């Protein structure tokens, strides 16, 4: 079974990544490369992490006109990562174009990366969504609508918070992946996140994957904290 704890490598350089990964010895991880690291290091960071045997979620959240997203995805597919994403707010044509680009760019004999769509960022509250973004819906209704659109467009799942997972299981089915950031241990600071939950609650609600950044990357003992998170996600007691 695929590792369902994804560590967000929100670092500013390859050197910082190397220092962090040294904590894990030969352990094979599922890691997330986001904008900060990818815009600094480019494709070489992907090559480095793949050579180390890690699975990779390349979190660039594409959001542009369909033709541009299709061409960009064709290039990302050539990197042979495991998961990529778009913003569902780009609409169904954009999401379908993303999939076409991925299919075209996936090397012969390789599996197409999973393609998921961000519904509402886990830093967004219902109040911000309604008052600033002027989306006149409850957060749950908005997330379900974006997720249904992603599913109808052929995508493999969505990014959402743990709090919407049960609802999405009912509306989009058990096979549709829910990738949930905004994960915090009970004693952690929430920081800039709004819709947070512990790994234990993520397991109870049925998240397919959790994404954990600062709780692990800023921990005094990252390996110990990673194991604690995994144990909570797998339902074991420490
Ligand atoms: O809705 C979203 C989409 C992506 N993220 C990303 O996940 C990590 C979370 O990091 P923490 O340090 O655990 O808060 C980060 O890379 C975000 O870019 C998200 O948080 N919410």
Automatic annotation (TrEMBL):
Catalytic activity from the UniProt record: orotidine 5'-phosphate + H(+) = UMP + CO2
Record: residues binding substrate: 10, 32, 59-68, 122, 184, 193, 213-214
Active site: 59 (for ompdecase activity), 61 (for ompdecase activity), 61 (proton donor), 64 (for ompdecase activity)
Gene Ontology, cellular component aspect: cytosol
Associated pathway: Pyrimidine metabolism; UMP biosynthesis via de novo pathway; UMP from orotate: step 2/2
PROSITE patterns reported for this sequence: OMPDECASE
GO MF entries: orotidine-5'-phosphate decarboxylase activity
EC number: 4.1.1.23
Record-linked CDD domains: OMP_decarboxylase_like
Keyword Lyase: yes
Coiled coil location: none
One of the protein's GO biological processes: 'de novo' UMP biosynthetic process
Enzyme class: lyase
Orotidine 5'-phosphate decarboxylase domain boundaries: 4-229
InterPro entries from the UniProt entry: Aldolase_TIM (IPR013785), OMPdecase (IPR014732), OMPdecase_AS (IPR018089), OMPdecase_bac (IPR047596), OMPdeCOase_dom (IPR001754), RibuloseP-bd_barrel (IPR011060)
Lyase recorded as keyword: yes
SUPFAM superfamilies cross-referenced by the UniProt entry: Ribulose-phoshate binding barrel
Keywords attached to this entry: Decarboxylase, Lyase, Pyrimidine biosynthesis
Assembly behavior: Homodimer.
Family designation: Belongs to the OMP decarboxylase family. Type 1 subfamily.
Function recorded in the entry: Catalyzes the decarboxylation of orotidine 5'-monophosphate (OMP) to uridine 5'-monophosphate (UMP).
Protein name: Orotidine 5'-phosphate decarboxylase
Annotated source species: Priestia taiwanensis
Organism phylogeny: Bacteria, Bacillati, Bacillota, Bacilli, Bacillales
Gene name in the database record: pyrF
């Amino acid at each position: 079974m695929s590792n369902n704890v994804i560590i967000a490598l929100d670092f500013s350089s390859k050197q910082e990544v190397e220092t962090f990964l040294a904590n894990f010895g030969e352990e094979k991880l599922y890691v997330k490369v986001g904008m900060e690291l990818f815009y600094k290091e480019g494709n070489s960071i992907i090559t480095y992490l793949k050579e180390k045997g890690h699975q990779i979620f390349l979190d660039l959240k594409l959001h542009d006109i369909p033709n541009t997203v299709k061409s960009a995805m064709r290039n990302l597919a050539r990197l042979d990562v495991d998961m990529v994403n778009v913003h569902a707010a780009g609409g169904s044509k954009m999401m379908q174009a993303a999939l076409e680009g991925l299919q075209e760019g996936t090397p012969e004999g390789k599996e197409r990366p999973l393609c998921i769509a961000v519904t509402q960022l886990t830093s967004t509250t219902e109040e911000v969504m309604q008052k600033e973004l002027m989306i006149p819906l409850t957060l749950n209704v908005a997330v379900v609508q974006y997720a249904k659109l992603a599913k109808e467009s052929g995508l493999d799942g969505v990014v959402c918070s743990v709090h919407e997972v049960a609802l999405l299981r009912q509306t989009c089915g058990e096979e549709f992946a829910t990738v949930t950031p905004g994960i915090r241990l009970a004693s952690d600071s929430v920081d800039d996140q709004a819709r947070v939950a512990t790994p234990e609650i993520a397991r109870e609600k049925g998240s397919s994957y959790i994404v954990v950044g600062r709780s692990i990357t800023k921990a005094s003992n990252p390996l110990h904290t990673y194991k604690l998170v995994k144990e909570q996600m797998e339902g074991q007691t420490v």
